Amino acid sequence: MKTKVIYLILLIALIFPTFSFFLGNKMFTFNDETQIANFHQYFKALDLGQFPPRWAPDMQFEYGSPFPSFNYQLPYYLGYLGHLAGIDITITFKLLLALTLVVGAFGFYALGISLTGSNLFALGAAVLYTYTPYQSIDHYVRGAIGESFALALFPWLFYGLVKLFKKDIPANRIWVGVTVALILLSHQPAALFSIPLFFIIFGLTGIFSKKLSLLISLIKSLLLGLALSAYYWIPVIFEKRFIQTQSAFNYKDQFPFVWQLIFSRWTYTGANPFSPDTFSFQIGIPNLIVLLLASILVVASFSKNIKDKVETWQFRLVTLSTFLVIFLMNIRSINIWNYLPLIKEIQFPWRLLMFTTFFTPVLFLYVVRKISPAKANLLTAITIFLSLILNLSYFKPGLVVDYNDSYYFHRFLPRAALKPGETISGSYLQHTEDYVPLPKGAIRPRSLPTSKLSSTFFDTKINTTSSNPLLFRAEVENRVAETLTFHSFNYPGWEVTVDGFKSKIKNNDIGAITFNLAPGKHNLVISFVDTPVRLFSNIISLGAIVVSILYLAYHLIKKRVAPTT
Question: Contact 247/445 with Cβ under 8 angstroms?
Fold first, then answer.
């Protein structure tokens, strides 16, 4: 135990340069700067009492968007803890990026111990993983918080699967299920590729090593993970038809060249493989060395009588998977991208660098098991040395700035941070919000509404008693029948109640909510509630949580009271 603590301290010391900047008080420029506004909108929805967050009230000139329903969730939940503590979003964002590097490194250390039993080899794999160039791309160039969370969780899922194959017990099955759910909540494209790929690797391992009983446990764990995260992915699938889907990027333009995967110039720009002004797509020199050694050993394994078939098949399948993702990043795989709709959800072929980043340190752990101790120790030392010497310089920001929350709010939100004399942010007027989904039939306005609820007649009296945009209340007195407009886009979940009775909702010319009102005095309630699909998915997730806790508690109690022989 003491040795493990020493190695963990050494690991923190070795990877500290990768996240030390995030602990300071300065900000940095990054590609996904809208993330700060995203955090603001998730936090606002939670503050307004909506859980889980499904509507961003300030986006699209405060007509709102179902963006939170379709975007990932986990980073914002953890970030909300910082919000409750009064920490600025920019600081919270940096702390979360730092957290992902630490969690990912610790996960690989745990995986290394599980696969090799060696603290040294586990340390080598964790350092290789943390210092792989794509980690810096996600953290310092793109600021891709969702992918960073997925990268942090990959080792923990693989660790759970390895443990499950070693010991098929309830705790390990639940561990796998929970990590599956967390990855699904962290980043949709990463989950769509990683979860099937990981489970295929271990499913085929069970088949080839004749451990077929483990396939049932894999299925149970997968179903548990899907159930725990059902509140998120079920509405994504069934309610996607209610939004306008579009992408500013064409995957056909995002295939890196082979030479760019080996080495490419480091910049802090966007992704454009056909231009010298692009960020780097390199897999990493130490990673490629490991992949070469793994390939040699895998070929040799077919000519030997292998005793440990489980580990050998894992080794072979991970090596094959690494070459598969490299092939899928090449333009020669275009037919696969054209004919498999699901793979297009990855959006960018170069995004598969997530998996070369993950698989090559896994291969390192298998390689050191296959060679002599002296060679394994030497390989570990070389891997750590090359990772630090070649890649350390990448883990720094391109430009250090003094931007605070207000800077980003002014750019990406209409009224969250106004300058003197402004009624709407001047910078926001230049922002297109292309990434924010609009409901079907909605047209993005060009200005803010004068009020949240408006009438067609000047003499209609509107007294707002609750300005909560997700649970709006008002007292209205109108002399003649008319149509009122609530300036939020109509989308499944909006309800208008007049004097306790539901009113029929219609759309105006830009897709905002309108409804008819008879003459008289009325109490209005306009609320955003769960649809049957959302309610059903919430119940599934809540039920999965309760069943998991009871199932684990039952087995722990049963184990404790079991008679000894």
Answer: no
By three-state DSSP, how is residue 130 classified? helix
Query: How many Å apart are CA 222 and CA 207, to the nearest integer?
Result: 17
pLDDT tens across 252-287, in order? 889 999 999 999 899 999 888 988 889 999 999 999
CB neighbours of 240 closer than 8 A, spacing ≥ 6? 70
Same domain, 179 and 40: yes
Q: Is 517 helix (H, G, I), strand (E, B) or coil?
A: strand
Let me know if residue 94 belongs to a domain: yes
Residue 393, burial from CB neighbour count under 10 angstroms (0-12, 13-18, 19+): exposed
| 8-state DSSP, 71 | S
Q: Cα separation of 422 and 103, whole Å?
A: 43
Do 70 and 144 form a contact (C-beta atoms < 8 A)? no
Count of structural domains within the chain: 2
CB 77 within 8 Å of CB 451: no
Segment 164-209, tens digit of pLDDT: 999 999 999 999 999 999 999 999 999 999 999 999 999 999 998 8
The reply to whether 425 falls in a domain is no
**Token pair belonging to 10:** 């050494």
Provide the β-strand partners of residue 485.
454, 514
Point out the domain boundary residue: 373, 401, 429.
401
Give start and end residues of each alpha helix (H) in 229-283: 230-239, 258-262
The whole-model pTM stands at 0.94
Q: Could you list the residue range(s) of the whole structural domain that residue 338 is in?
A: 2-50+69-244+259-401
Among 401, 417, 432, residue at a domain's last position? 401
Cα–Cα dist 513/526, whole Å: 10
Distance CA 138, CA 20 (A): 16
CATH code where residue 466 lies: 2.60.40.1180
**Residue 253: inside a domain, yes or no?**
no
Instruction: Say if residues 365 and 121 touch (Cβ distance below 8 Å).
Output: yes
In a domain, 80, yes or no: yes
Over the Cα atoms of the chain, what is R_g?
26
Same domain, residue pair 105 and 204: yes
